[in-house]
Amino acid sequence: MRLFLLIAGFLLMSSQGAAQRVKGKVYEEKGGFELKHLPMPGAHVRLLGSESITVTDAFGVFELDGVQMGDTIEASMVGYEPSGWVWEGRGFVELVLRPGVALEAAEVVAEQRATSLSLMSPLNVQTLNRAELVKAACCNLSEAFETNASVDASFTDAITGTRQIKMLGLDGKYTQLMVDNMPGPRGLSVVQGLLLIPGDWVQSIAISKGAGTVSSGYESITGQINVALKNPTNADPFHANVYLNGAGRWEWNHVSTHQVSRRWRTALLSHALLNQRVNDRNGDGFLDTPLQRHVILRNEWKFTGDRGIRGEYALSGATTQLVSGQTTPFSEAPWNQLPTWMDQRTFSEGSWVATSLIDRLEATAKTGFVFPAAEWRSIGTQLSALRHASRHNMGGNAYDGVEQMFRANVLYAGRIGNSNHRFTTGGSWVFNSFDESADWNDTTSVSWNRVERVPGAYFEYTLNDEARWNVVAGVRYDRHNLYGGFFSPRFHARFSLSEHVSLKASAGRGMRVPNPLMEQLGPWASRRVWWTWDRESDERVPLQGLNIRPEVASNFGLNASARFKLNHRESSLSIDAYWTEFEERLVVDYDFGTDAVLVYNLVGTSRSRTAQVEWDWSMHRRFDVRMAYRYVDAVTDRIQPEARRDPFVSKHRGFAQLSYGSRVRENGSQWRADATVQWIGAQRLPSTANNPEPFRRPDEAPDFAQLNLQVSRDFSSRASWYVGVENLTNVRQDRPIIGAGGVADEDFQRYFDASLVYGPIFGRMVYSGFRWKVS
Amino acid sequence: MKYALVLFALVATQWAHAQKESVTFRVEGICGMCEDRIEGALDVPGVVVADWDRDSKMVSVVYRSKKITEQQLHDLIHAVGHDTSAGKASDEEYAGLHGCCKYREGASCPHEEKE
């Protein structure tokens, strides 16, 4: 075809005439055996090599000016293969677009690496696609980073099994999480929100270290993680997954897409989780894994309109129930007793129970318009609204919180002169209300209400000097109704030393308003009472006296990436250094005493410095290797000057992964295997020195290594089965819960603490699952 | 950890110094399916890397000359129906190709992305 076009082009070149106006029509090819051609509205039609571009109307018709003999007219559309036509003088041209994924027999899939880093983007972005995400088949977003060296997932406490992520040595709350470029887990859901994004719904994850762009808000400090969910256009017509693990957890996931009309496509996503098995492997009388029930649903609609209008509208809802704690109360199905436990304000040895309920409803709407005569110019609006309600009661420590948010964001993208100079500008308005109350065994209580209204505006300039230089520079100003104006400048640059080596630099400032009660789940599962520190009297005072101030930090980073051939095969090396310096921070201090957790505004310095080396090599036709090492130095000034090093952060961390993929047979069948080792260096633990001996723990956690294995069998391109082992060597934290395991009730009441968790609790876990799809 | 890395690098360099030859020759073909077929045919022990370029129609192969010869590379490609600069595929093999890969008739793959 291409050859033919070229020849035709040559022949016609000689008889070149004057520029003309050409009309035409773009069709969409549909169907398997019986092909149908339907008019395609909203497709881009351009003249290759010129700026001239247009969009087809409702009947797929377009008009293009300035066409000369021999010019190539190209039609394109997201999700379709572009189609070209060399114009030979006729007045009406017909172009056919074929779906990019429909022709299975002749389908061509470019070999794509499971994790890719971009040498061209000025942002330090690492993209994990499906091939990477299926390497760790479990279960939700907090567990999706198991095979990634940049993001860690650690447990928050020994009771709920909740995992939180960490990036650049700082908690996940300093990383801006986005779902389809809209606000993701934040506010009250900053930790637990990750549990509400099922792993099987995720299409890809982009991890951007460093400041990030300004268009999505002021909250990013250590970086941005954007999760792209499967949507009506990129997902298969039907996909289902069943998962079961050795802890008794069942999961169901499903994604299906439907063409509703010519312009509307929809996707339905569902997730269910059930775990009713009582596990206590370490025999401490506490459940190792919580009992839980989740139901999460999402429905997304995609509109592809005429004349450049696009829309994505989604509604999602989640409801979860969790029960955990001491094993004795769970003789029968726990769900009926949930309301009783929820209201309990006392506990004693043998009846300590934790309950947690989350209900979340979220609606998002994105509408975009691309100007027909100028594809570089576009306007977009993003609206999102959510209600997140969470209630929990952990042994009488009760919490009730409701967050409501509405955000409107308008973006306008254009260019200055030519397409080397582009800009994005716009404004946003955020309404965010928080209504929190907490009660600790009827002894102390706190109640906080906050309503935020934040208008903001931003401008971002992108310089694109083809091969060598890229610069993204943005400024943003937000006016917070409670905390005043905030200015966040951000800057990213890329310079390519050669085609294979690029250097990147970034700097930026970010702010976030903390919600301490929901950002630290650990202290809830303990006898620790929350206090704040009064600088004037130099003593601890009840938490209600805390004056919450926004956290402000600046982040600077350097990155060098290189691609090269090692033993004639592709390899890449990436070296990073990042430095985060806090101006203001809400310090959470476990070191004051074993009976308290102190929350106060920073006086002094707090910073995190990290360096990371990551090396990838496609070692053999069948094997890929990845190795990484990271150094973290995170320190914060606390009340006790000796407790400067941040707890639960390991200074050294290593990562190695070996992946195997057998030859893909004609029917798509393949064997795959992955082995991942993570080595986590020593971490400082909060001091337990003022406890008596059986209730003391070392001040430093030992280093440990965790090995995960997974084998997958693709029976065809449609069905696959996987089986894996997490933590094969059965590494477990020694006595994770202080005060557990047959102690006097009085001691239990006094010393109980499940918040000092640094490693795995459950030990070796086998899991298996099945995926099936229709394409 | 550190030692593991050093050890690994040592093994890797040793390996990289084994007897290897690289060769580039023309293979007739059209599309990405052809590319998969040609590169798939060369997915045998002894071949370190094989890459066929759709535009130039040239395949570049790095192979261990102790395990495989250049003639064997050509034979492997002929056996899946593609002509090379050193010979032709049998007509039977050629007949088995997908319609859009019939390079002798100048077929084209309509679904392929235009560059």
Descriptors for this entry?
heterodimer; A: 775 residues; mainly beta; Immunoglobulin-like; Maltoporin, Chain A; 46 strands; 4% helix; B: 115 residues; alpha+beta; Alpha-Beta Plaits; 4 helices
Q: Number of helical segments of chain B?
A: 4
Radius of gyration of chain B: 17 Å
Measured distance between first and last alpha carbons of chain A: 27 Å
Number of separate structural domains of chain A = 3
Note the quaternary state here.
Answer: heterodimer
Q: How helical, in percent, are the residues of chain A?
A: under 10%
CATH class of the domain at 26-105 in chain B: Alpha Beta
Greatest contact between two chains = A-B, 29 and 31 residues
CA radius of gyration of chain A is 28 Å
Shape of chain B: elongated
Largest sheet of chain A: 22 strands, antiparallel, barrel
Secondary-structure content class of chain B: alpha+beta
The arrangement of helices and strands of chain B along the chain is HEHEEHH
Main beta-sheet annotation of chain B: 3 strands, antiparallel
Which spans of chain B have pLDDT < 50 for at least 5 consecutive residues?
none
As for the CATH topology of the domain at 26-105 in chain B, it is Alpha-Beta Plaits
CATH superfamily of the largest domain in chain A: TonB-dependent receptor, beta-barrel domain
Shape of chain A: globular
CATH second-level architecture of the domain at 26-105 in chain B? 2-Layer Sandwich
| Cα-to-Cα separation, first versus last residue of chain B | 45 Å
* CATH level-two architecture of the largest domain in chain A: Beta Barrel
What does this structure look like?
The complex is a heterodimer of chains A (775) and B (115). Chain A has 775 residues and is mainly β. Chain A is built from five helices and 46 strands. Chain A has three domains: 98 residues, Immunoglobulin-like, CATH 2.60.40; 114 residues, Beta Complex (Ferric Hydroxamate Uptake Protein, Chain A, domain 1); 525 residues, Beta Barrel (Maltoporin, Chain A), CATH 2.40.170. Chain A has a 22-stranded antiparallel barrel. In chain A, strand 34 and strand 35 form a beta hairpin. The longest helix of chain A has 12 residues. The radius of gyration of chain A is 28 Å and the shape is globular. With 115 residues, chain B is of the alpha+beta class. Chain B has a domain of 80 residues: Alpha-Beta Plaits, CATH 3.30.70.100. Chain B has a three-stranded antiparallel sheet. Chain B is elongated, with a radius of gyration of 17 Å.
